[in-house]
């Protein structure tokens, strides 16, 4: 079993070698792919003997046939300490990202925080500076909320043109989890606030000591100190034992491995809100504190990773929509590059500041060239802009907050390519 476990991260070739070496149950060789003896009405090989039963490992893993679905991208993720991995959006079902496929962005690697030694200090413009242990937090009333997190640099390479060859790379710094924890306002109720408190600084306990300034109004609205993610403890890569959840706001302010919150009367202008995470405009000025991830969407099938393989006929177009200011109210889909639109079905649940799945049927004609687009709207009436509209307002010097309508070109042979048609 341990051998099988290890091969879970190896290539398929490696797995087949394991099978040939006979470490699988008897019959595994004939259970291999492409064996007509396994097809109905025959009894397949895997049903002819007892399987291993309850697994020995204390923690479950996915099918060994699914290990190609992965977030680590070697050609993009060279430096493991200060780097990034991407959620394989084309392989996702529904709206929840499995924790093992949550995208990662670490500026100083993943610290091994010992939960018993974890403390959160809240100080500055408060009546009573306090420290909290993890146990203290868990005694308080908790909430569980489903929210997306998106790095504002998602798609940041595409301001000047289509670059990346798949939805994992154009949009994969986007994940959605059920987060469980304590509302920050409950802790601030304990510390009390001085009358002039209007901003707070959140600091992480990793080697980068990541710090961001957040307006107090947001903190008192819906910010959560999360210790739970999808029903279990927050993963080390997501900020174990406690991370900030800042619904709808750029991923960078969702401070991981949280250790300190300081109240103040103005922003701190730290590195991550001056040198980075500002939007450089065409006139050379930079917009700062542009926290919100505005209304956005992308088709996740068909897409470069999910081509049509020359098979004409029915295909369901599906994708994800999200808005940092509230619920998605409508997603339109075009197959002709925006000349005509049809409204897609929004799959329940449709939650505020969460991913929303949309789907719409399509008949792909033999040899048809198609330009697939999705255009989302949210409850505030905001509509996703075209790339041309966004460029007109923002120029091409930006990295962050690109929420333009995305185009996939379906070639006559069913191949799907990343293109921009309104440049
Ligand atoms: N302490 C700390 N918090 C952090 C970071 C970090 O490097 N250190 N990265 C930030 C960035 S840039 C993003 S986009 C999100 C990524 O969260 P994830 O790794 O859980 O996807 O965490 C943010 N919080
Ligand atoms: Mo980020």
UniProtKB/TrEMBL annotation:
GO molecular function: heme binding; molybdenum ion binding; molybdopterin cofactor binding; sulfite dehydrogenase activity; sulfite oxidase activity
Origin superkingdom: Bacteria
UniProt domain Oxidoreductase molybdopterin-binding: residue ranges: 107-267
Domain Moybdenum cofactor oxidoreductase dimerisation: 293-407
Cofactor list: Mo-molybdopterin
PROSITE patterns for the chain: TAT
UniProt-listed GO biological process terms: sulfur compound metabolic process
Pfam name, any one: Mo-co_dimer
Assigned EC number: 1.8.2.1
Name of the protein in question: Sulfite dehydrogenase
Organism for this UniProt entry: Roseicella aerolata
């Amino acid at each position: 079993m341990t051998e099988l476990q290890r091969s879970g991260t190896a290539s398929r070739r490696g797995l087949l070698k394991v099978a040939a070496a006979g470490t699988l149950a008897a019959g595994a060789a004939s259970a291999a792919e492409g064996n007509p003896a396994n097809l109905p009405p025959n009894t397949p090989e895997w049903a002819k003997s007892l399987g291993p039963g309850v697994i020995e490992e204390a923690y479950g893993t996915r099918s060994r046939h699914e290990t190609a679905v992965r977030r680590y991208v070697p050609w993009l993720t060279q430096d493991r300490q200060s780097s990034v991995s991407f959620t394989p959006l084309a392989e996702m079902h529904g709206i929840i990202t499995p924790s093992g496929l949550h995208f990662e962005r670490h500026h100083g690697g993943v610290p091994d925080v010992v939960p018993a030694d974890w403390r959160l200090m809240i100080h500055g413009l408060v009546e009573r500076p306090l420290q909290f242990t993890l146990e203290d937090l868990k005694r308080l009333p908790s909430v569980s909320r489903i929210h997306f997190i998106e790095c504002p640099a998602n798609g940041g390479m595409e301001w000047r043109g289509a670059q990346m060859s798949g939805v994992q790379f154009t949009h994969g710094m986007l994940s959605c989890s059920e987060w469980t924890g304590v509302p920050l306002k409950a802790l601030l109720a304990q510390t009390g606030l001085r009358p002039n408190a209007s901003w707070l600084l959140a600091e992480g306990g990793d080697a980068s000591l990541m710090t961001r300034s957040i307006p107090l109004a947001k903190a008192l609205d819906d910010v959560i100190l999360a210790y739970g993610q999808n029903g279990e403890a927050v993963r080390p890569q997501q900020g174990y034992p406690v991370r900030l959840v800042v619904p709808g706001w750029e991923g960078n302010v969702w401070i991981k491995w949280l250790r300190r919150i300081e109240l103040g009367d103005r922003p701190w202008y730290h590195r991550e809100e001056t040198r980075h995470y500002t939007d450089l405009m065409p006139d050379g000025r930079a917009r700062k504190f542009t926290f919100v991830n505005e209304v956005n969407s992308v088709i996740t099938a068909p897409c470069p990773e999910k081509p049509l393989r020359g098979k004409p006929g029915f295909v369901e177009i599906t994708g994800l929509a999200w808005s940092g200011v509230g619920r998605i109210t409508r997603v339109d889909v075009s197959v002709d590059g925006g000349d005509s639109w049809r409204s897609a079905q929004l799959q329940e649940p449709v939650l505020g500041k969460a991913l929303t799945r949309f789907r719409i049927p399509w008949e792909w004609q033999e040899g048809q060239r198609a330009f697939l687009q999705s255009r989302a709207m949210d409850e505030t009436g905001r509509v996703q802009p075209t790339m041309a509209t966004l460029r007109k307002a923002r120029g091409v010097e930006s990295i962050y907050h690109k929420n333009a309508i995305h185009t996939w070109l379906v070639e006559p042979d069913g191949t799907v390519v990343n293109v921009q048609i309104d440049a």
